[in-house]
Amino acid sequence: MARRNALRIGAVALWTIVLIGLCLWIGVRRHRTPVSPGPVGPDASPDIRVLLFEKQTASRLTTSGPLTVRSLPDGAQARFAEAAELEVVWFHGRIAVGEHVFSGTVEITPADHQAGLDGASYRGRLSLVPTPHEDGFQVVNVVPLESYLAGVVGAEMPAYWEASALESQAIASRTYAMYHMRRYGPGRAYDVRKTEGYQVYRGVEAETARVWEAVEATRGIVLAAGDASGGEGDDVAVFPAYFCSACGGHTEAAWRVFGIGEIAPLGGVRCPWCRQTSRPGVFEWSAVRLKVEDVWKRLRTHYPSLERLGGLEAIEPMETSRYEDFVRLTKVNLIGRHGQRQWLEAENLRLAVDPTGRTLRSSAFVVRREGEVFVFEQGRGFGHAVGMCQYGALGMARAGKTAAEILAWYYPGSRQVRLY
What we know:
Elements: H1 2-30, E1 47-56, E2 58-62, E3 67-71, E4 77-80, E5 85-91, E6 94-97, E7 100-102, E8 106-110, E9 114-117, E10 120-123, E11 125-130, E12 137-144, H2 145-156, H3 163-183, E13 192-193, H4 209-217, E14 221-224, E15 243-244, H5 254-258, H6 274-277, E16 284-285, E17 288-291, H7 292-302, E18 314-322, E19 327-335, E20 341-345, H8 346-353, E21 366-370, E22 373-377, E23 379-380, E24 388-389, H9 390-398, H10 403-410, E25 415-418
Parallel strand pairs: 1-13, 15-24
Antiparallel strand pairs: 1-12, 2-5, 2-9, 3-4, 3-8, 5-6, 6-7, 8-11, 9-10, 11-12, 14-25, 16-23, 17-22, 18-19, 19-20, 21-22
Helix pairs in contact: 2-3, 2-4, 3-4, 3-9, 3-10
């Protein structure tokens, strides 16, 4: 009897252990484990070439492990077996890395696929390309596209924003990058720059677990123009999926802002979302007063041909987009000293007068002359207003919209395609 009871107790204990284990297994399966910063699994994405610096004559390279440095023209190479901190110097038409001097383009490949350059850290490898005038070298980061996106999404959008907003940003940024890789990459040593003129890229510094989750959740997905029957792989009609910080209530047609051909998903849509989510000074901004002589000087610097105007008397609207409660300039007439006229796209005017884009925050303003000062008032939005409104995407995400719904709103007529 005692033995039978012992067996019964043992069986109950065994089944209890099995049930506890099963519950734990189910719990683990249902819990979404956060993705650690950094590439997860094999990266099948293509490499993108990011121009980090236009012209350098000296840089400091750091690695946490071994690296190989190789000259592409003649194959000469040097291997460093341990973590290194090296000076990279332009030296009489050649590139010196530490004590080794190389000719032509130099490729730096860290064993752990991560290198530091002048205080910033980047994944992939670095390519040092002599400038066309051979007075220094360009620094190009050759990095898998998905790793690049982790350094973009976290730089372009706060990592604490809702997941569907981050996923929308990842898809828009991937589309934008792929478009530039195909359209412009073949004719030059890089595909995109790291600056706001393209999309901001800060390398490893911008990566977080939430950013990597958004990138991984959308891996390989881009937006394409046209119907669902159109192409696969390299034939997919990707387009430049522009985005801006805040559109001010209505996004703008790309061809009216940039003077490019018509692209159906970039035609402009109403945006009722960014008014509620934009921080102060973004949806609406205070009047800006700039001296006439300063505006004229900056315009001449960017567009020397304007000298023929002999001076700047007025800035007049030429083409505008009028919406329910605001107006956006798309083209302006610059009026010269003797009445001559020269038109300019309003976005080009804005960035010539304020290259930072942080004072004249958009081209949605009214401009008038007051004595020796130009007054830019009734300002609305932040950025060029083409494509996805980021603060609008945040508003839609907070309203429970998915990334697919957000992208369908801001890029109407586009479709999602998984390239890899």
